[in-house]
Amino acid sequence: MIPININPKKKIAIYVCDTDQKGTYPMRRAQTIADTLPDAIDVVFIYLKGSTPPPSTYQSVPIKDNASFINTLTTLNVDLLLRDSGSTSIEDVERITTIVPAVIHFDDFGEGGKAVDLVVQTLYTEDHEKQPAHYLVGPSSFIADEQLSPFKRVGLQSKQPQSLPHLVISFGEEDPGNLTYRALRHILQLQIPLKVTVLLGEKYSHDKTELQMMALGRRNTHVKERQGNPLALLATADIILCASGYMPYEIAFMGIPCIVLAQNDFEASLDFPKEKHGFIHLGPGRKVKQSSLLNAIMEPLLHESLRTKAINRQLALNLGEGGKIICEAILYALEQPKRLVPEGKRTSDML
Prior knowledge:
Blueprint: E1 10-16, H1 25-36, E2 41-48, E3 59-63, H2 66-76, E4 80-84, H3 90-96, E5 102-106, E6 118-121, E7 135-137, E8 166-170, H4 179-187, E9 195-200, H5 208-216, E10 221-225, H6 230-234, E11 239-242, H7 247-254, E12 258-262, H8 265-269, E13 279-284, H9 290-302, H10 304-315, H11 322-335, H12 343-347
Parallel strand pairs: 1-2, 1-4, 2-3, 4-5, 5-6, 6-7, 8-9, 8-11, 9-10, 11-12, 12-13
Helix pairs in contact: 4-5, 7-10, 9-10
């Protein structure tokens, strides 16, 4: 990392709100970044009421809407904003850049990203148009947090002899399209000996009783609700069935064969969880055929060469080290902000 002196003391605001069923990873990523920064930097979290709460170890400010977000930024008088709140507009960002000297966005597919200092695009689409120079695009920006780090390359570990292959099904916190139900209904027809664990998110709002009744109809099949660190359960799997988004990055870090079903058009457009990176992508989950899903499950379980190939492709990406890149960018932006915001503007009421 480039040695940069942070003097006098700087203040960073981190704004994270739940968007596009992205789960808990954005907040975990934010905490990992905050924990890595030097003590000479003060960190305050801003969060939308009802979203994933920030870590209790940091000062935090709840907001109710975009207007209160602007007011809060003005009052805090920060030197840099890290924002992970989905796609933004030019108008929104231009207003913020009159208050904050440096701005970094995460996974922003809107026009507003063109007006900030850096966009970290861990999620990226199949669109191969050239991105602006200040976009960091691709898997290299993925950060392994403290929940994930203990399971690095776990897929290479030897399994207990004669143990049943283990399939874990997990479609995130909400699973709005109830792909869990659709997948389990198909898997009931699978004839090979297999342990199946269905992992439900905290915000799963569909009928759990129906899933439990289906599980009773197949041996070694269980429905569990998330508690503690769900990655510990995923790490026990021989194969995982999940949505697109951030979970495939976590699975590739662990090195476990994985089948992906897209929950929506946005997820279907993402380019990471594809065969070239060791995944079986079956497209939109609402359209998946039973035969396609069952074949995708059986192939890596019955053919060791296919399993090994998938794991090697995942681990060859060497994921998880993005924190070093991002923290260096933060330190540089604090030392060399592109915008010199007048003190009067930063402390006045912008509304």
